[in-house]
Amino acid sequence: MLTTLVVIFIIGYLAIALEHPLRVDKTASALLLGMLMWIIYAMGAESVVPKISAESFNHFLESHPMLQGKSLHRQALEYVLNVDIVEQLGDIMQTLLFLIGAMTIVEMIDVHGGFRVITDHINTRDKKRLLWIISFVTFFMSAILDNLTTTIVMLMLLRKLISQQDERWLYAGMIIIAANSGGAWSPIGDVTTIMLWVSGNISAPALLSYVLVPSLVSMLVPLFIVSRQLTGDLPPRDTVIEKNSHITGRQRATMFYLGVGGLIFVPIFKSFTHLPPFVGMLFVLGALWVFTEIFYNSQMLEQAKELRLPKVISRVDMPSILFFLGILMAVAVLQCTGILTEIAGFLDEKIHNVYIIGLVLGVLSAIVDNVPLVAGVMGMYPVADPAATGYAANFVIDGTFWELMSYCAGVGGSILIIGSAAGVIVMGIEKINFGWYLKKFSWVAFLGYLSGAAVYGLEKLIF
What is the pLDDT of residue 130? Predict the structure, then answer.
C-alpha cells in the first residue's frame, strides 16, 4: 500500500505541475489527490497503523473498549477516522483559517483603493531609480501581505508607468524576486513561513534576527545586476481616471492603515496571548468588519453594498484555499503512514548536513510547489526537544534547519518562473514565457539565492 500511495502522490504532483498543458486546474488535481490518498489509507489501515502508530493505537483501543471484539481492520479504520484525520485536519485548518482571514483583509484594502497610499507616491521617471523603489516596496509589502496580492498590485502599477513590454518584463522579473525574498523573513509574508510559524517550528523574532538580512541580500544581488541594464528616463506619465471616485483619499488611507496595522498586530497578539495565529487574524477581521459596518451605516453611500465585507469576501481566491487543503491532506497521509519519516532518515544518513539539505530543498522548490514541499519537510522532521544536542539541536524551535527552510523555500522559488505564486501570476498577466525568464533571470536569482545563504551561514558563525 505504501508504494501505491507514493506512486499516486507522484502522479498527482505531476498533474499539478503540468496544469497548463493538461488544462486541468491544479486545485481539482490537489483535491482529488488528497481525498484519494485518504481513501486508500483507510482501506489498508490495518497494515500500517499497528506498526507506525503502535503506542498511540494501543492507547486508543484501551480508551475505546467497545472495539476490543472488532476486527483489526475495523479497529485501525476507527483510529484513522477518530485520531489521524481529526489531528491532521485540526493542524491544517489553523493554516487555512489564517489565510482566509488575511486574504479577506487584503481584498478589503484593495476594494477601497487603499494601496494607492503607496503607489501615488511613486513619481520618479528615472528607470534605475524606479526599479530600486519598486523592488524595495515589493520586498517590504510582501512581508506584510501575501506574495500574490503584492505582485498583482505592483504589476498594475507597472502598467501605469511603463508602456514598453521588454522593459516592463525586466521590472516584472525583479518583482518576482523581491516578492519571494520579502516573504521569506516575515511570519505572515509567505504561505510557507505561515505554515512554519503557525505550527510552532519558528518564531517571528527568529525570522527577523536571522532570515531578514539573507533575504535582503538575495534581492540586492539580482537588483544590482538587473539595474545595470537600464538607462535613461521613462516618458511622461499619462493621467489615469480615478477608480472608486466616491471614496475619498482619507477613507482610502484609513482602510489601508487599519488593514495593514491589523496584519502587523497578529504576530504581536500571538506573542502576548500564546493563542494560535488564526485567532488573532480572525479577531482583526471581526474588528475591521464591525468598523466598516458602522462606517457605512452612517455614510449611506450608494456603493456601500459593494464595499461591505460580505461582498468583498466573495472576491477571496477560494480555489487557492482548496488547493492548500488538498495538497496538505495528501502530505498528511505520507506523514501518518511513516513515508516522510523514512525519507528524512535517508537524507540524514546519506547527507547529514542541514545546510546542504536546506539548499537542495530550496532549489527543488523552484521546480515543485513550495507548499507541499514545506508540508512534507515538516512531516519528515518533527520539532526536536529543546534539550536536544548535536545534530538534533538543528530541529528545535527556531533551530538552524527551520530558519534555513524559511529562507530556502521562499527565495528558492525565484529560480524558475513556475517556482512561486508570484512567478505564476507574472507569467499569466505579463505573458512572460518560461524560456525568457530562464535566460534573463534564473541565473541572477540563483546567484542571489546562494549569496543570501552564504550570509546566513556567516550569521550563524558570528552569532
Answer: 92
Are 57 and 76 within 8 A, CB to CB? yes
Whose cell is 527556531? That residue is 398
DSSP per position, 279-326: HHHHHHHHHHHHHHHHHHHHH--TTHHHHSHHHHGGGS-HHHHHHHHH
Task: Report the 3 state secondary structure along 7-47.
Answer: HHHHHHHHHHHCHHHHCCCHHHHHHHHHHHHHHHHHHCHHH
361/382 Cα distance (integer angstroms) = 17
Q: How many whole angstroms separate alpha carbon 158 and alpha carbon 324?
A: 29
Which residue is associated with the grid cell 481529526? 86
Residue at 245: amino acid letter:
S
Residues 9-16: contacts with CB under 8 Å, at least 24 apart: 9/33, 9/37, 9/330, 9/334, 12/36, 12/330, 13/368, 13/372, 16/327, 16/369
| pLDDT given at position 108 | 87
Report CA 37 to chain centroid distance, whole Å. Answer: 23
Cα 436 → chain centroid: 25
Nine cell digits for residue 79: 483510529
Query: Helix, strand or coil for residue 357?
Result: helix
Phi, psi of 287 (to 5 degrees): -65, -40
Q: Return all residues near 30 (Cβ < 8 A) that are at least 6 apart.
A: 12, 16, 322, 323, 325, 326, 327, 330
Mean per-residue pLDDT pooled into runs of 10, the chain (463 residues): 90 80 85 94 91 89 88 92 91 85 85 80 85 94 81 80 86 95 89 87 92 96 93 69 64 88 85 86 93 78 71 83 86 84 77 89 78 80 88 92 93 86 79 85 96 95 86
Note the pLDDT of residue 241: 44
Write a three-state SS string for 385-434. Answer: CCCCCHHHHHHCCCCHHHHHHHHHHHHHHHCCHHHCHHHHHHHHHHCCCH
Cell of 458: 556567516
pLDDT at 19: 75
Please list, in sequence order, all residues whose beta carbon lies within 8 angstroms of the beta carbon of residue 236, skipping any fewer than 6 positions away: 125
Cell 498527482 maps to which residue? 12
pLDDT at 245: 55
Name residue 34's amino acid: G
Note the pLDDT of residue 163.
80
Query: How far is residue 259 from each of residues 109, 144, 152, 244, 292, measured CA to CA in Å?
Result: 6, 10, 17, 18, 11
Predicted structure pTM score: 0.75
Helices vs strands, H then E, count in the chain = 26, 0
Cell of 399: 533551530
